[in-house]
Specification:
Blueprint: H1 2-38, H2 40-65, H3 74-80, E1 97-102, H4 108-116, E2 123-125, E3 132-144, H5 147-160, E4 163-169, H6 174-187, E5 189-195, H7 208-211, E6 212-218, E7 221-226, E8 230-231, H8 233-241, E9 248-253, E10 259-267, H9 268-276, H10 278-281, H11 288-297, E11 306-309, E12 314-316, H12 331-343, H13 347-352, H14 355-360, H15 381-387, H16 414-417, E13 441-444, E14 449-452, H17 461-467, H18 477-488, E15 499-501, H19 506-516, H20 519-523, H21 547-553
Parallel strand pairs: 1-3, 1-7, 3-4, 9-11, 12-15
Antiparallel strand pairs: 2-3, 5-6, 7-10, 8-15, 9-10, 13-14
């Protein structure tokens, strides 16, 4: 009993001491409270000082942890990256891609804008023949929608057939990315047409469905993208065509570590590894792009993984004023930067750009942490787009239209291209019902327009008919836009911007599409190519009213 009491006595002493210390602290607290109540002004001063201290510490911690403390030297990245010419890869087989765009249930407008812009350009074209080559499928990746959005998502799935609903709670963590790659490992596929008859007999069939069976093949690459990223899909296909088709991780590499989350991809073998690896399954917490890089570092054959970096042609929208932002970039301006470095920058220009480091990050359109401002007021839509082009666009300097710009001639075009239905200049041969005879016109299926056999004649019918000369329709603006694009691409079709990130507003998507793609290519899309052939029944197998059951049942469907 004496030994027990000896062991307990120090504990009793410690508890007694703690009790006494607590009473002293309480008494001091009461005294301090009474002092504050008697000195209200000093209380406010102390409170203000505490708020300032806490705020300062917060900003200090944020600054310390923030990796983007300075603007990125994008000019150095562009001149050090080898020039990409599509002629170097034209002889290589096209690649088939699946792009999974991470989005959430409520972003209906953003998905529709994507469908109307870059998702309509899913087929890469041959540089000479302009025939479709590889196939790209764009899918929107969602977690389980909230009940108030379930019905609308179901209708959207049925309408466009480009939504994948994962059977997980919606999240921004890498868990969603992991589940997307698990789905893609089995279901990332593109349609393939297989002839039912020998090739020579296909012309005898009455329709496409009679001539071919639809089969499916797994893609070569799976890419993850954010829904605030505008992607030039034909550029993306060309870049991946030039990379190894196995053991490849592609994207914008941040300081030699992970690939930035706005757009990155894996060859199909790495997708299967991510989907099946037990080690990866245990490490899904945290930022998805950083965690994805750690998944690759867990690969048992890490030394064989090829990191393909695209540093120059992935950047942020010029209106975003982030460290990665600058104007819409074309190869001709990059060549100007290369010539500047080769010939030397004049000291006056060097100083105007802000010295050594700032000169390397200099942009004609954007300023870091400063909102974008147009060069002047009263710009037309076309001038607004050109003002966002790095280097000043077509109207650098004065920002006025000149006599050489055909845009000023648009007012007198209508009378040259618009005719009455019975205009003699069309040379129509009228039938008994007053309509053009079948011998006069035929239907061009690839264009979707009637085509007249006879050349269009002018008002001087007799003179023109004898000479058999056709009156031009007027200025071919599509041809002019194409010529300007080829000049910006150094007479190639690709080799420029792959992706523009931080496109936070829907109208910024339209700006990017007009600047990089051009209005005529968007206009000429007769159908929504983002909608693919169905490889089964409709994704909506439950009644619309059964919101919860529809989500659980259709979570892992291929479409």
């Amino acid at each position: 009993m004496e030994r027990v009491s000896q062991r307990q006595s120090p504990l009793r002493s410690l508890s007694t001491q703690l009790l006494l210390d607590g009473k002293r602290v309480l008494n001091r607290t009461k005294y301090f409270s009474r002092w504050l109540s008697n000195n209200p002004r000093l209380s406010l001063v102390y409170l203000l000082l505490f708020v300032i201290f806490a705020t300062s510490m917060g900003f200090l911690i944020k600054f310390t942890l923030d990796p983007d403390k300075r603007r990125m030297p994008w000019r150095t990245e562009c001149i050090t990256q080898p020039t990409f010419y599509n002629a170097n890869v034209d002889h290589l087989a096209p690649v088939d891609l699946l792009v999974g765009v991470m989005t959430v249930d409520k972003n209906f407008e953003r998905r529709q804008v994507i469908r109307q812009t870059y998702a309509t350009l899913t087929r890469s074209l041959h540089n000479v023949t302009q025939r479709p080559l590889g196939n790209t499928q764009v899918k929107f990746i969602l977690g389980r929608p909230l009940p108030q959005y379930a019905e609308r998502i179901a209708l959207e799935m049925e309408m466009f057939n480009d939504i994948v609903v994962l059977d997980i709670k919606e999240t921004m963590s890498s868990y969603k990315t992991l589940n997307f790659f698990r789905w893609a490992a089995e279901h990332a596929q593109v349609p393939v047409l297989v002839p039912q008859l020998p090739y020579g007999d296909l012309s005898k069939q009455s329709s496409l469905n009679d001539a071919y069976d639809i089969r499916w093949k797994l893609v070569d690459y799976v890419l993850k993208a954010d829904d605030d990223t505008f992607i030039m899909l034909d550029e993306l296909e060309r870049r991946l065509r030039a990379t190894p088709r196995t053991m490849t991780h592609w994207g914008y590499r941040v300081r030699g570590t992970f690939m930035a989350g706005e757009l990155y991809g894996f060859s199909m073998d790495l997708v299967r590894y991510i989907a099946s690896s037990p080690r990866v399954a245990r490490h899904w917490h945290g930022k998805e792009d950083v965690r994805t890089y750690e998944w690759i570092k867990m690969h048992p054959n890490l030394s064989q993984v090829h990191f393909s970096e695209e540093q120059c042609w992935i950047y942020d929208h010029p209106r975003s004023w982030t460290p990665y932002a600058h104007g819409f970039l074309f190869p001709n301006h990059v060549e100007e930067i290369r010539r500047e470095v080769k010939n030397g920058i004049p000291p006056v220009v060097f100083a105007a750009r802000g010295g050594r480091y700032n000169a390397d990050t200099y942009s004609t359109t954007s300023r870091w942490k400063v909102p974008y401002h147009a060069p002047r007021g009263g710009l037309t839509v076309e001038e607004t787009i050109e003002a966002l082009v790095e280097g000043g666009g077509r109207w650098s300097g004065a920002w006025v239209r000149t006599s050489h710009d055909t845009d000023s001639q648009k007012t007198d075009v209508r009378q040259k291209v618009v005719f009455d239905s019975g205009d003699v200049r069309l040379g129509l041969e009228q039938g008994h019902d007053g309509r053009p005879s079948n011998e006069t016109l035929f239907f061009e299926p690839e264009i979707g327009l009637p085509v007249y056999h006879q050349a269009i004649q002018s008002d001087q019918t007799q003179v023109r008919s004898k000479a058999k000369q056709a009156v031009p329709f007027g200025i071919n603006y599509a041809a002019e836009a194409e010529a300007r694009k080829r000049a910006r691409y150094l007479d190639y079709r690709v080799g420029g911007t792959v992706a523009v990130h931080y496109v936070k507003k829907n109208e910024w998507f339209w700006e990017t599409a007009l600047a990089l793609v051009g209005q005529h290519r968007i206009w000429n899309q007769s159908s929504n190519v983002a909608s693919q052939w169905r490889d089964g029944s409709s994704p909506l197998v439950q009644p619309v009213s059964s919101k919860e059951s529809f989500i659980r049942t259709d979570a892992r469907l291929q479409n």
